[in-house]
Design goal:
By secondary structure, the chain is mainly alpha-helical. The chain is built from eight helices and four strands, in the order H-E-E-H-E-E-H-H-H-H-H-H. A two-stranded antiparallel sheet has the order 1-2. The protein has a two-stranded antiparallel ribbon with strand order 3-4. The termini are far apart.
């Protein structure tokens, strides 16, 4: 995902003290990256779609034909919702360590509240919430940066219209500065002899 203000502005938390609502921060090497509030919202969007795919009745699944670009333009048939469920779970398991995946499993897959999770995992409230925020941030980054097909944005994952080019910003117009006053012309020097 290309980190630009137009990609992150809608996902940014307006009260975020790090990015101040823009959704962009600078990394260690000076590279622009998404703020943690944006990454957590990306995780929430992907997780909500995962829940809706899991809760949907199985007879409502539909088979879709996805046309691939290339010389022979072949297509493949697939069940996009089931594929999303499988991709979401496998990417999550590969991205998290054993302890973080255990927290993710209790909190998100089994749906336990924080009180039950802290009791079961034998953790305090503060470290548990910090771990949940860390997991959301890590997974949001993984879901958006996954190659060649990222889980976020969802319309590109579920849609069949793939772009052949990346969107580019319009070139900046070079405006010429027009002075407010006309420039002052230097008068020719007069000879002292001609003045008298």
């Amino acid at each position: 995902m290309l980190w630009t203000r137009s990609n992150t502005l809608a996902l940014a938390t307006h009260k975020c003290v790090v990015c101040r609502g823009s959704g962009l921060t600078f990394g260690r090497a000076g590279a622009i990256r998404g703020c943690d509030c944006v990454l957590r919202n990306i995780f929430k969007v992907c997780f909500n779609r995962f829940r809706s795919c899991v809760e949907r009745e199985k007879y409502l699944s539909k088979v879709t034909l996805e046309i691939h670009s290339g010389p022979n333009r072949r297509g493949t048939w697939g069940l996009k919702q089931e594929e999303y469920i499988a991709d979401f779970l496998s990417v999550t398991r590969n991205a998290l360590g054993a302890e973080d995946y255990r927290i993710f499993k209790y909190r998100y897959l089994l749906g336990a509240d924080w009180k039950l999770c802290t009791r079961k995992l034998k953790m305090e409230r503060g470290p548990f919430h910090h771990a949940v925020y860390r997991i959301q941030t890590r997974l949001g980054e993984v879901y958006s940066q996954l190659e060649p097909y990222a889980l976020y944005p969802l319309d590109q994952y579920f849609g069949s219209n793939h772009r052949t080019q990346r969107a580019q910003a319009l070139p900046v117009r070079q405006s010429r500065v027009v002075p407010i006053r006309p420039p002052v012309v230097q008068l020719p020097k007069l000879d002292d002899r001609k003045v008298a």
